[in-house]
Amino acid sequence: MNNDKADFTQGSILKKLIAFMIPVLGALILQAAYGAVDLLVVGRFGSTSGLSAVSTGSQVLNLVTFVVIQFAMGKIGRASCRERVYHRFDRPLSR
Residues near 15 by Cβ (< 8 Å), separated by ≥ 6? Predict the structure, then answer.
């Protein structure tokens, strides 16, 4: 994937999927680690109501991140398919 645009409709899907998955997976792992450390710190120095609030907030943040990532993946896939269809109809029709 040397070019700026990756065409997910041609070639080996596994290589492109792994290259696309690694940054997303890394972000989700970092976010889970952040939530775990946050819970440890609040559990050690805070109250039970603070611990409950941090736990709930962490779950909401994970949900929002998941939804944003899904919309971004849908947007990339739709743009790739749309570009492929437009290029198909740019050529003159031959008889």
Answer: none
pLDDT at 1: 46
User: Chain centroid to CA 44: how far?
Assistant: 32
Question: CA angle, 60 as apex, 56 and 61 as ends, to 5°?
Answer: 115
Cβ atoms of 31 and 59 within 8 Å: the answer is no
pLDDT score for 41: 92
Provide block-wise average pLDDT over 10 residues at a time, the chain (95 residues).
Answer: 62 80 86 88 90 88 84 70 56 55
> How many Å apart are CA 32 and CA 58, to the nearest integer?
8
Distance CA(12)–CA(41), nearest Å, equals: 45
